[in-house]
Amino acid sequence: MGFFDSIVSRVEGAISDAIEESHPGLMEEATSLLGGEGGLSALVQNFNEKGLGEVVSSWIGNGENLPVSAEQIRSVLGSEQVQAIADKLGISTDDVAEKLSELLPRIIDRLTPNGEVPEGNLAESLLKGLFAPKS
Fold this sequence. Notes:
The structure is a single chain. With 135 residues, the protein is mainly alpha-helical. The protein has a single domain (3-130), classed as YidB-like (Arc Repressor Mutant, subunit A, Orthogonal Bundle). The chain has helices at residues 3-22, 26-35, 39-49, 53-60, 70-77, 79-89, 93-111, 120-130. The protein is globular, with a radius of gyration of 14 Å.
């Protein structure tokens, strides 16, 4: 990892930590979206079906990540799922959608370093490794 990559990684970690501190449990909920039925592939398909294929492809690809809005997150996940996460965490649906719009691009980008969506147990392994405590 180069010097620049190291700095980017630290900044991203600090942002994720700040989100987790302000909304405990949100990182876990974000990763559970990727580990549910169909995993990352199903989530990517949902983005494609909602006309956001270019956005999610940018997260998977090796270039710059395109932004996603809170409203687009609601569209992809559905109001019921956003509401369920909000109820579980005791925060507003607006906060859930906004924070997921920040987290999901980074998480998916990290899970797809070679520009490919991992399948099966590999995705589960990557998720566990992505958020494992650092030694």
